[in-house]
Structure formats: C-alpha cells, structure tokens
Amino acid sequence: MFEKLKHKINDVDTKEILTKGFSFLVFRITGLLFGYVFALFITRQYGAGVYGLVTLCFSLFLFISIFGRLGIDINLVKFYSNETNQKETGLFYRVLIKSIIVSSLLAACLYMFKDILVFKLFKKPLLEPYIIWIVLAIPCWSTTLICSGLLRAKKLNNWFAFLNNPGRFAFSLIAIVILWSIADNPLNAIKSHFYGVFFLAILSIIISIKTLKKISFKTNENSWVFLKDAFPMMLSSTMLIFLGWLDTFILGIYESEETIGIYGIALKFAVLTSFVLQAINSILAPKLANSYTTNDMDLFKKLIQFATKLNFFLTLIIVTIIVVFRKLLLGIYGEEFVAGSIFLTVLCIGQLVNSMSGSVGVIMQMTGHQKAYQNIVFVALIINLILNFTLIPIYGGLGAAIATVISISTWNIAGAIYIKLKLNIASYYNPF
Question: Taking the CB of residue 178, how many other CB atoms lie within 10 A of it?
C-alpha cells in the first residue's frame, strides 16, 4: 500500500496537481483570511447592518460582472490548451475590449434602475449611496477575471490564484484602513472595495501584457466565433453565481440588513469547504482539456479519480473542524453573529455531499458537454429560486441555507450521473 501511494505521488501529473494545487490552496486561504479581516473590520466598526448592505451589494456586483465576462475567462483555458494557439495574442485583446464595453453598459443599466432596486424591491433606503461604488467596480472585476483566465491558461497559476482570491480583499483591506484613518464613514466599507478592485484590474492588465510580451489586435481567429463558443460557458457560470448568491439577494427582499449580515458571515465560513475543489480545479482544467483532446483516456480517468478522492477527504476534515468550532468562529465577529451557527451547519453538511460528486463542471466543460452542463445548472437554479421564495419568508436565513444546499446538491449529483452515462466515467467518490 505504501509503495502504491509512493508511486501515485511520484507520478508527474499527480505531483503537479498536488504541488500547484497546494500553491493555489495557500493563495485561497490567504484570500479568505483577507476577506475575513475585511468583514471583521466592517462588523466591528459599523455593525451587522452595514455588513448586510455590503453583502447585498456584493450579490449585485457578482451577478452583473459574470454577464460582462461573457464566458471569456473559461474559454481562454480551453483555447490555449491547444499547443497551436500558444502564440496567439490578438484574440485576447479583442475579446477583452468587448468585455469591458459590455460590462460598462451593464453597470450603467444598474445605475439607471437603482431607485427601483433600492426603494421598491429591497425597500432599504440606506442602500442607495452604496450602488454607485458597485457600478464603478463592475468593469474592473470583469477585466481582472479575464486576465486571470489568460494566466491560468498560460499555467501561471500563482498569478491566477492571487487575482481570484487574495488580491480583491487584500487591496480592499488596505483601502478601508486608509479611508477610515481619514474619515470614519460607513460608506468606507464599499468605497474601499472599489479601490481594491480598481488597483487589481490595473495589476492584472500589466501582468497579462508582460505574459503575452506585446500588445496586438491582429489575429487569424474570429473573436465573434470565440465569444459564441464561450456563450454556453457564460450561461453556466452565470447560473453558478446565481446559485451562490440568490439566497442573499432574496433575503434582501424579505429580511433586515442585520439578518443578511449574519447570514453573510455564515456563508463566508461555509465557503472554506469549497476551496479545496477550486484549488484542484485550477490545475485540473487544462490537464483534462489536453488529455481529452489528445484522446489519452487512461490519463483522463486517472486524473479524475485522484482529484475526486483528494477533494472528498480534505473537505471532510474542513467540514468537521468548522462544525465543531462554529460558535467560536462566528462569535469573533460579535455575539449577534452566533445566531448564524445553524445556517453554517446546514451549508457545511451540504458541501460535504457535493464534494463526493467530483469536478463535474470542469469535466463537462473541458469535454465539449458545456451545453448539457448549462441545462443541468439551469434546472438547479430554478429549484433554488422556487425554494428560496418558498422557504425564506417562513424560515428566514435557515430557509436560504436549505434552499442553497438542495439546489447545489441536485446540480452536482445530476452532473455526476450524466458523466457516468455519457462518458462512462465515475467522477464521484463512493466511500463504501
């Protein structure tokens, strides 16, 4: 058994998943720490109500940013996994410009309809001055993630990990401390986020230019065809963001700012249970795309089996720690946040079930089954929408947690079944 384990660890592809995945994990943990400290500063300085408004703003910010990205960040990984496309530069700049234009127009629409959102839908007048800072941040975040997609495709995983995780809240934390030292104002919570995302976007563009070594808009590729190919990936990513944030959005309609803030902190800790899968997927995606393209199915299956087992056991450890120490963790943010312990428990148990399904999204997207993946996620989104509107008015934050767990589990299990039936590959892990 020891020799078998040693052989598996010494395997080139397995070793890369472990080493680079661990590197991503370090960045992910660092990013979460910055996010937790950022949230701690807001809750301790301005209370659960202000953090609730910020969390609500983040849901709007992520909803619109995902549309502005047009699925480009994911399709870049697939595009550059083909060796013949490695020297292509013009396509990246063309699709980046298109994304900036689209995300800016969408942000402008949000600002135009802010009164409807603030006064009629959410009925939270205090939210109004927060909206403009989200509007300004949207094109910057779309730019950052497209650049990170390029760097992921070029296997610069440390930069990809930094831009996706620590960068946003690291810069935001620096900004909020500076703003607070100048003037103590609750709006610092959302202003600092804009400044953090803005500087991150500038940094991501500089790194991308250095990576490609030149700025050129000349290309033999059709950027519109590229966007057409990316469209199903955009829809899938959009629905995933909706699945992750729809509970917060609907809570904003029915519950107070304080409840949203408490649920937001519980959700922040629950995210810890998913970053192992994200770390693995950051390395797994280009490897799966390449092995599938070259028809190396033995390698393809081996990568999936190893990644699934690794993800399950690490997630099990994290879930156990969080559930045992949930009250202690939530109490760091203030006594009122301990009320979110039941939300956190439900979300963690649900994530453990999901971890057994494996990397279904990456597998389907990297093997040309992105439309089927899109349909599965769409069904899960409809279930999420129905359950949130049904359960939140009755059970509040607990209803949101239950709705999220059921819908995301549906998507993961359905994806695993599809992969088994269509590709004859077991993406899931059966501990029995």
Answer: 12
Count Cβ atoms below 10 Å from residue 14 Cβ, excluding itself: 17
DSSP string, 377-398: HHHHHHHHHHHHHHHHHHHTHH
Cβ–Cβ contacts within 10 Å for residue 408, how many?
24
How far is the C-alpha of 409 from the C-alpha of 430, rounded, in Å? 16
* H-state helical runs in 213-274: 223-254, 257-270
**DSSP one-letter string for 105-119:** HHHHHHHHTHHIIII
d(CA 220, CA 84) in angstroms, rounded, equals 12
Q: How many CB atoms lie within 10 A of CB 174?
A: 16
Burial class (CB in 10 A: 0-12, 13-18, 19+), 123: exposed
**Number of residues that make up the chain:** 432
Please list the helix, strand and coil fractions of the chain in percent, rounded to the nearest 5, in that order. Answer: 85, 0, 15
3-state secondary structure of 206: helix
pTM for this prediction? 0.76
Whether residue 370 contacts residue 376, with contact meaning beta carbons closer than 8 Å, is answered with no
Nearest Cα to 345, choosing from 243, 258, 417, 273? Answer: 273
Q: Let me know: does 49 contact 257? Beta carbons within 8 Å.
A: yes
**CA–CA separation, 404 and 419 (whole Å):** 23
Question: What pLDDT sits at residue 281?
Answer: 66
For residue 15, the model assigns a pLDDT of 55
CB 62 within 8 A of CB 56: no
- Residues in the chain with pLDDT values less than 70: 1-25, 27-28, 81-86, 88, 216-217, 220, 222-223, 232-233, 236, 275-287, 289, 292-293, 296, 431-432
